[in-house]
Task: structure prediction
Amino acid sequence: MAKDEENILEVSISPHIHAGVDTGTIMRDVLLALAVPGCASIYFFGLSAFWLILVSSLTALVTEWVFQKLTRRKIRIQDLSCLVTGVLLAFCVPPGLPLWTMAVGSMFSILVGKELFGGIGYNVFNPALVGRAILLASWPVGMTSWRQPLRMITGPVDAISSATPLSNAKLSGIFTPFKDLLLGQVSGSLGETSALSLLIGAVYLFYRRVIDWRIPVSYLAAVSALAWLLRQDPVFHLLSGGLFLGAFFMATDYTTSPITPRGKLIFGAGCGLITVLIRLYGGFPEGVCYAILFMNSLTPLIEQFTEPRPYGKV
Result:
């Protein structure tokens, strides 16, 4: 090599140091973390849970591929983000939802919640929660028809229906024991019955450094604090509903949440406060979905006001 070539200075755009982690690696870790509550849902609700997760995932995969093909965009299904959206959406529906309804919801999650904004990295709202909101508005009966876990059923399966712990607490003042909430012996959506399985998945995400502690911790702390101030049981509100699913797997979405440290804390706290207010005073017993979607819309504003000052600037 010539002496002049040895002294060449190569200048490139940032980042100059790469961590060696890409989108596909992150999404694989998320899918592995979701496998724990996914297996728990199949254990509690049987093959209906398996088919819902499968249909939602495949529909999301095919929808993204077809849309990118038709619009002549780069095919990006290999980053697995569409599969994460499909699995998360399936976790937000009851076990008795018809498969065709699941497919429609998954398709709209990808189209309306993701691709119409420009694809991964450009969407404003969490795609899975967009799909859930559409399903709840379009098929409210199917989205609120709950069923007890098969492990609790002693009679004919078709004759068994039950309200969720949050519905029982809000309408009847009946509070489910903490042990049942932790293990999953309750009615609810596929991914929100067993708090323990979600915590195991969350621990894996922290271990792999996929998610930052600020959003889930501030989310759960705000729920606990407001519930206590309103003379509610904080532990019940932490363990019931889709709080763990939302706090660890949805609110922490890179694209739709702030990137600044202070912004993450504000975002998580806002999600927690709105969640409790909807649970106690809103028309729905659960408020995780709409709380996160509302805070998603405030993410640009939060980042603007929490942007760190450049070093040396007066």
